[in-house]
């Protein structure tokens, strides 16, 4: 199994990142460069999270081997007597060395692989987040019509961005240079850069973590309260409808401006190719409407009209991209929220059902699979939705609350090594004594996964004036995707470094003589900047206590509500009005969907009742028509023989003209020689079948 676990996790993590990108991005419409950059950023961050537990278990094994070799014993055979352990060795290490030999973990990674792996992953992610992704972000957001124009816009926008970073790095460089006892080398410069990046990431990490540690357990607890959840859904519906109306109005304004520009610039104008590019980004109904109103046969005249410049068209192109993306996103979000509200109303109705079978207001448009037919039956769905789901969410909320308390306690006490107060360090050291590597890896993975969930879920919920927003169902724009990749690459390395400090695997913080993990070794020695290693990294995470208290009492929500941003507040009159408005909107959409469902059922019943009769009538009409054509051809030949022997030339011309204009359902058998020789040209006996007795064939073709 040497290295096999590393290879398997690398492959699985790639498919996980690809699945998430498919859920939030759009592979068909978005640029390949944007998708590749976002996928690479997410993939590298997930690799750090999943591979770090293997690095921890491998480091513990090497620590054990190193301790046995220091005492001249075989680490795989004989233990070391307790009286021969060194005094600087920790109690856990001394007990481990004197009690049992070292056992190689199942996921052991050979020496020399992990340092190279971490160096490639870390520096690639840092190049992405500080250099490439900001440039690609501006490139994708640009409204330029050529690659050169987009690159120029991206360079101008990132000039200030890169200048700020150079200023910060230069300040740290000057701070180190003024100390004569420090000799600047490439290793120390590298450490300064890593320290600056991790300091920025840790600053943002604590803010996001303080919110997520409280909000995630509370969200699951509130999810078990169906009444509260339904009221919040009404509140969201009212806010989303307002945003949807604003998006539609904004799209109408932008399309009106596009229409004016399109009508002013004719087909032979030099800027017409730019207008065609803008029109291709518009919705299809607007494209058809503008296409009907275009008069491309008119030539343009430079002397009579004023035309927009290329710079204004670039700005218009950018507005069209943003307006269309926002309109599509709000429309899809409205459909998803409407489905959630209807489902919650169905749950409220089915809770009082005596049959214990879940009944949906509207049938699912998807066909019923074998799982719904045999496992997730209406009875099983009723027990899950109305009875078991709420207790499951409450139990999960309690477990997550305990995790949050453990994280807060460990963040405030992880610097204490004697006694060990960090709960996660205690759990790892207990497993380290028995060489339970599987438990060590699972404990590390669960802890890192919980920390990442608290941080990343907060990132996915961030909304900055609708400028950055991650929306599922392929509705996330390119700018938001790349911004999330930037945040992930900046938050994941300091998060993992903070986790190693919680379990006392970072000697720069714990000040213990222990073997460093491969991940910590590439970070360099933080002692180059002692005020950060001994001050900021230790005491700043304690701020998480204040942030958790503020989140628990919803201080941020109350401040936003005072500033005019409507937030859900139980004691607010504005919240009550929005809840009533959302309830009315959901009721209106339910009636609309019910009418559509009733119309569809009536059409289905009509088709089932009269479909067979219509098929019989159509078959009968086709057979009668074939018989009439046969008899008509025979009678025509007889008439032609008669016409050739008798009658004047004028009469024959009139008869041929009538034959050409004769309808399909004309009864040729009723035509006689006497009628042909009459002065009127058509006898009253000649009639159409639609006037005859076969009335059941009137609507055969309907």
Automatic annotation (TrEMBL):
The keyword Acetylation does not apply. It is a multi-pass membrane protein. Residues 690-702 have a biased composition (Polar residues). One of its GO terms (cellular component) is membrane. GO terms for biological process: adrenergic receptor signaling pathway. The keyword Membrane applies. Residues 237-264 form a coiled coil. This is LMBR1 domain containing 2b. It comes from Nothobranchius korthausae.
């Amino acid at each position: 199994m040497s290295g096999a676990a590393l290879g398997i996790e690398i492959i699985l993590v790639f498919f996980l990142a690809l699945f998430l990108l498919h859920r939030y991005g759009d592979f068909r419409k978005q640029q390949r460069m944007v998708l590749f950059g976002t996928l690479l950023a997410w993939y590298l961050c997930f690799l750090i999270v999943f591979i770090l537990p293997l690095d921890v278990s491998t480091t513990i094994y090497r620590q054990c081997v190193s301790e046995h070799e220091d005492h001249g014993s075989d680490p795989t055979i004989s233990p070391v007597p307790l009286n021969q352990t060194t005094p600087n060795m920790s109690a856990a290490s001394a007990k481990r060395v004197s009690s049992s030999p070292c056992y190689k973990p199942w996921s052991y990674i050979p020496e020399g692989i992990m340092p190279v792996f971490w160096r490639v992953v870390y520096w690639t992610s840092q190049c992405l987040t500080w250099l490439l992704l900001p440039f690609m972000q501006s490139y994708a957001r640009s409204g330029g019509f050529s690659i050169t124009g987009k690159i120029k816009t991206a360079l101008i926008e990132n000039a200030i961005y890169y200048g700020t970073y150079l200023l910060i790095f230069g300040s740290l460089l000057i701070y180190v240079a003024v100390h004569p006892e420090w000799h600047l080398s490439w290793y120390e410069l590298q450490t300064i850069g890593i320290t600056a990046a991790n300091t920025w990431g840790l600053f943002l990490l604590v803010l996001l973590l303080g919110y997520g540690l409280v909000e995630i357990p509370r969200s699951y607890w509130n999810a078990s309260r169906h009444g509260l959840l339904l009221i919040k859904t009404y509140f969201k519906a009212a806010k989303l409808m307002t945003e949807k109306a604003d998006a539609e109005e904004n799209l109408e304004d932008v399309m009106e401006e596009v229409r004016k520009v399109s009508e002013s610039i004719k087909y032979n104008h030099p800027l017409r190719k730019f207008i065609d590019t803008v029109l291709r980004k518009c919705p299809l109904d607007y494209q058809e409407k503008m296409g009907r109103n275009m008069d491309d046969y008119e030539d343009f005249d430079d002397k009579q009209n004023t035309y927009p410049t290329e710079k204004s068209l670039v700005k218009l192109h950018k507005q069209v991209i943003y307006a269309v993306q926002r309109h599509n996103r709000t429309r899809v979000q409205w459909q998803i929220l409407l489905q959630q509200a209807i489902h919650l109303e169905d749950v409220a109705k089915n809770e009082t059902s005596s049959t214990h079978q879940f009944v949906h207001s509207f049938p699912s448009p998807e066909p019923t699979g074998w799982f719904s037919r045999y496992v997730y039956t209406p009875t099983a769905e009723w027990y899950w939705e109305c009875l078991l789901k709420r207790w499951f969410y409450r139990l999960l909320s309690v477990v997550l609350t305990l995790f949050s308390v453990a994280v807060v306690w460990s963040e405030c006490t992880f610097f204490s090594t004697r006694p060990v107060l960090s709960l996660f360090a205690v759990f790892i050291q207990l497993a380290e004594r028995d060489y339970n590597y599987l438990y060590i890896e699972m404990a590390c993975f669960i802890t890192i996964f919980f920390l990442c969930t608290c941080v990343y879920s907060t990132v996915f919920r961030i909304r900055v004036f609708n400028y950055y927003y991650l929306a599922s169902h392929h509705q996330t724009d390119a700018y938001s995707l790349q911004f999330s990749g930037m945040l992930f690459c900046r938050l994941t390395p300091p998060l993992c470094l903070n986790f190693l400090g919680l379990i006392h695997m970072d000697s720069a913080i714990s000040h213990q003589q222990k073997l460093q993990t491969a991940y910590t070794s590439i970070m360099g020695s933080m002692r180059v900047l002692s005020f950060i290693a001994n001050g900021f990294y230790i005491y700043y995470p304690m701020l998480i206590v204040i942030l958790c208290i503020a989140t628990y009492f919803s201080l941020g929500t109350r401040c936003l509500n005072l500033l005019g941003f409507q937030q859900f507040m139980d004691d607010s009159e504005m919240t009550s009005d929005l809840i009533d408005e959302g309830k009315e909107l959901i009721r209106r959409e339910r009636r609309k969907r019910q009418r559509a469902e009733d119309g569809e059922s009536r059409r289905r019943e009509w088709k089932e009742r009269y479909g067979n009769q219509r098929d019989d009538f159509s078959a009968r009409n086709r057979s009668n028509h074939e018989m009439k054509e046969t008899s008509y051809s025979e009678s025509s030949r007889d008439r032609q023989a008669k016409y050739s022997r008798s009658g004047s030339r004028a009469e024959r011309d009139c008869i041929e003209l009538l034959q050409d204009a004769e309808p399909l359902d004309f009864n040729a058998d009723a035509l006689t020689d006497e009628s042909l020789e009459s002065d009127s040209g058509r006898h009253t006996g000649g009639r159409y079948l639609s006037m005859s007795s076969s009335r059941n064939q009137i609507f055969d073709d309907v």
